[in-house]
Write a structure and sequence with these properties.
alpha+beta; 4-stranded antiparallel sheet; Helicase, Ruva Protein, domain 3; 14 helices; DNA primase, PRIM domain; 4 domains; 407 residues
Length: 407
């Protein structure tokens, strides 16, 4: 990485308030750093207060700063078994890279390392030409994919953590990661002692893994009568009921034919109003149509809940010793801040504006190639093979992305 980036990072950290680096129970956290150009992470460090942490990062100026989600008796111990695990925050990582969005066709590229075939958009698991899995990607962020990631955060909190798990607003914090997405830190002591298996259960719950509608109130009683949950029910029972109702309400005949047998689809579509009214009744009745079976209902239910499933990196949630980005640290691949987001105003949060750390000055750069990029109020691109003067934050972003060099 170019020295100018390191110098600007150092200038940022020098001007940072010590309290901006505060983390709950800081002396019990392990800290780790990745230096510019370094491949080996510096780990197993302990800081008793923000002042000592600031002194270290100003002097050493890393590209990335992490702290552990876990609490330890001895965070500085180099042997993980000697640290003395005391518990860990429950962390959710929402990364726009893992979510299929239409904007990826505009700004992301991939190519196969083996045969050289490439394309735009979300990368395939294996090369469609040679079948190899060595796929190299060049991904970017834009307002659209970051909005989708933010919607996932809101979904996790409003649809799962708060109503189903009883997490209070005072027990979690939301952070923009500084690059492609968001982190949710649940600090409630209720979850602190969860094992990896317990954390996996939580991850599977919000991802809808293993959903069986028969376990959520749908069943067949005598004379092939179908009964099911009420849309007012809590948890996945009500969630599936509401999703199924909304799906059928907006579904076209072709949508239904893609899920169930043509005859069942035609009967359901022609009698949609009758079917929906039966679900609204008290108690709800789910089998008001001839030829409509529990198997048909199950197929439609599975299709209807796709938008309810949360897109998270489950490995982060399961890991009880995860390293996560430090608040107000800079992301070495963007130059943007890892910034706390107020839950009450998350709808209006603009990460590409509010997470900008460098608000003054300009820099002359040579841009090799970049799609349309917005940082703050400045836009650039698509652009290729051009030298120009740009605002400092935008220039550092492109340099950190490897798309530009200072001139």
């Amino acid at each position: 990485m170019h020295e100018i980036v390191r110098n600007e990072f150092r200038r940022y950290y020098s001007g940072l308030r010590e309290e901006d680096l505060e983390v709950p129970d800081m002396p019990q956290r392990e800290y780790a750093f990745l230096q510019f150009g370094g491949e080996v992470m510096i780990r197993h460090m302990k800081f008793v207060n923000p002042s000592s942490l600031k002194e270290y990062i100003v002097e050493n100026t890393p590209a990335h700063i992490y702290h552990s989600s876990a609490y330890y008796q001895m965070p500085e111990a180099t042997d993980m078994n000697e640290k003395g695990w005391l518990g860990a925050d429950l962390v959710f990582d929402i990364d726009s890279d893992h979510i299929r969005t239409e904007c990826k066709d505009r700004h992301d590229r991939w190519h196969c390392i083996e045969c050289g075939m490439g394309g735009a958009g979300f990368p395939p698991e294996s090369c469609p030409h040679c079948g190899m899995k060595k796929i190299d990607t060049r991904t970017w962020i834009c307002e659209d994919c970051l909005q989708v990631a933010k919607n996932e955060v809101i979904k996790i909190l409003d649809e799962y953590l708060i109503p189903d798990f009883g997490v209070a607003e005072t027990d979690f914090e939301v952070f923009f990661s500084g690059h492609r997405g968001y982190h949710i830190h649940v600090r409630s002591k209720t979850f602190r002692g969860l094992s990896a298996d317990g954390r996996r259960e939580v991850a599977d719950y919000v991802r809808g893994i293993g959903i069986d509608i028969r376990s959520h109130g749908f069943r067949e009683v005598k004379s092939r009568i179908l009964v099911g949950p009420d849309m007012k029910d809590g948890g996945w029972r009500g969630r599936v009921a509401r999703a199924l109702y909304e799906f059928v309400n907006r579904a076209s005949l072709e949508d239904l034919k893609g899920i169930v047998a043509p005859g069942v689809a035609k009967n359901l579509f022609d009698n949609k109003e009758k079917f929906l009214k039966s679900i609204e009744s008290d108690p709800p009745y789910w089998g008001s149509l001839k030829g409509y079976t529990l198997e048909s209902l199950e197929k439609i239910a599975i299709a209807s809940i796709k938008d309810l499933i949360c897109n998270i990196d489950e490995r982060v949630t399961i890991d009880s010793k995860r390293l996560i980005r430090c608040p107000n640290s800079l992301h070495g691949k963007s130059g943007l801040r890892t910034l706390r987001v107020d839950y009450s105003s998350i709808d209006d949060f603009d990460p590409l504006k509010e997470a900008v750390a460098f608000r003054h000055g300009s820099i002359r750069i040579y841009v090799k190639e970049a799609p349309r990029v917005r940082i703050g109020d400045e836009e650039l691109g698509p652009i290729k093979d051009k030298t120009l003067e740009v605002p400092l934050a935008l220039g550092l972003y492109l340099i950190c992305r490897g798309a530009a060099e200072p001139r």
